[in-house]
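Q: Could you fold this chain for me?
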Amino acid sequence: MAIGLAKGIGCNPLVTVVISVFNKEAYVRQAIESVINQTYKNLDIIVVNDGSTDRSPDVIRDYAGRDKRVRLYNQTNSGVASCRNRGLTNSEGEFIVFLDGDDYFYSHYIETAVGYMEAHQDADLLHVAWDYVDQNGKRFSSVSIGAVEDYLYTLLLGNIFAVHAVFCRTAFLRKVGLFNFYTVTDDWEYWIRCAKEGGRFEALNERLVGIRDYAGNNQKIKAKQHLKYFPIIDCVFDPAFGLPEGYQKLEVPSRIRHHFFVLEEYVRWGWREEAQQQFEKALQFLGKHAHEVHWRDYSFVLPMLSLSRIGRLSLFHFRNCAFRQALGIWLSRLGVDRAMQRSVEKLKGRAKGAVRKFRLLGLGRKRSGSSLRTGEDLKYLYDRSTGIREIKKLTLIYFERQRVIHQGRFRGYRYSASTDKPVLYGTLSALLTKHLYGVWDEWIEVELELMKSFQNGDGLFRDPAISCPEALG
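A: Sure. Below is the predicted structure, expressed as structure tokens.
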């Protein structure tokens, strides 16, 4: 695939990548190189410098001088929506994808996405899985959003996408129009418009994007944080926006969820005063819509709240005669705290015993760098329903404890902590569970290869560890 091919040539269509940059001197080089070094080469790379005051423009100019695919646009600081609009307006590609100056693509992202979209000609947008990484690029969690039955319904309740993880047909985006300007989260309103316009979304469970999540990147100016979601909610639920009949009923659940989304962020960032103010706003809103909101709409934040705030939420529902909701809040909070602590301690005890046994037998060896960072896994899962992330977390911890490494090689999974020998159906169980949870880590390929090694010429899988010669006779 040669550089500079014309757009729309059969199975090698031109792809536009729009990179938005504002004072990302420390990261922009990696962002640009992650695009230049894609396995797919027919690229139109638009880098928009949004009035940077550091050395970001110098870095961009260096790449533009060395690679004819890179086009640099300079503008006064106008925000990321303006950068994306600049790129969309000047795009020459059949497909388009957006990237921020401190994030990056994995090398096969565009090749994989183009292949999928070429095979699914009716798809307008493809969303893929992504990793959250820290300032140094170290992954600490992954997110995969499976296919959704009603994207408009789901998006009205909250943004489920990372903007860089959505690969789009340019013709469809031009039909939808340009990004609207908001203080933050401009892309959320844009995906809602895409769904309203009948966009066909497809899901691909493959981690292809690295997104930095660190304090300096997420904790914007405090005065702007309260504008993060609510102007968009005002817009999309305004009759002039034109939501189809039946979707207006989602306004109250969406508002309460986003009141608590903001509260969750403040608690996580340690902004105590802002968190308390936001909690009072949430209670005030609940007071106006006591019988239109269920506690499950904000269950994701309960594990982070103090017992005094849990008590106030519960008392609020009790005073409104919503006794089941009042009880549900306490059961959810206490159940998460106590069950998680008991289960994790139990798993830790079993794991330590198993490791000691393995070492005595010479079977086990500690492997560093495991990709299952279960302590943080699913922090950003879109629906955040009660108990789901705890169940997933414990399940993945369990399978990680059953993994057997002998003499530096992966040997499979035990089926329980009471056994020492890995068996085929233990590995199969781990793979099926990961598939169910949408987990794709560096063990998957190794696990699949191990499973294939048990397949005989007749197509059947046989595990010598559990063979029974008497049954064969």
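A (continued): The longest helix spans residues 323-361.
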